[in-house]
Amino acid sequence: MKGMKERLAKKIKLITIVSTLKQGLAHHKSKIDRTIHHIRDEIVAESGQRRGCVTPTLEDVEVSEQEHDLEEEEEREILLEFEEKCPPGGEDSIVFYTTGLRAVRKTFEACRRVRFLLENHMVKYKERDVSVDSEYRDEMWRLLGRKVTSPRLFIRGRYIGGADDVVSLNENGKLKKILVGFPLAHSPCKCCKNERFLICSSCNGSSRLIADDEETSNGNIWTRCRECNEKGLVRCSLCT
Fold first, then answer.
1. What is the pLDDT of residue 115?
2. Which of 143, 183, 212, 214 is most buried, by the most CB atoms less than 10 A from its CB?
3. Quick check: helix, strand or coil at residue 102?
């Protein structure tokens, strides 16, 4: 009988200890929950303050406009340092004469360097491949008054120079400044996917058409397609 009483007393004591532990854990969990909610409220309040600051005031707008005007003025001053030579359609754009031929590695790599810098600044530019269209080559030679190799870069009707000149401008920070205001290139050209040329639909890329009756009478079976270049390609109207 005595042993049973002792075991019962131990069980009651154990139940009391377990109950106390449960209460302690519940109290501790409650404190943790309050701490979490407090931190969450602080984060929400802080993010709300940040969102509130996004709305620009009149003073902020005026400062932003002044900064933009200063950037444009600095761009014009830098461009005035370069010779005025404007390629067709290059009055307010970037025109880049390049080559896709790998025959001369030095020239090909120089073109790649300039293209990389333009793409790195994410600006839209008109790429004119002299290896695909000989008219681009003649156009470049006429602009510079001599036979030169690509790459050659023109910005807003000003001759910037070759690869070494463009790399130097990028290193001293001037290239970024003179590219201010140009539209950004977020995706490839919708028309040619940045290939710059399209296959001629008139001759299907052959650059030749069946001659008419008058030319056939002279012994000519074929005649030159006037819609494309010597490689049967037409220029993309959106990006060249």
1. 94
2. 143
3. coil
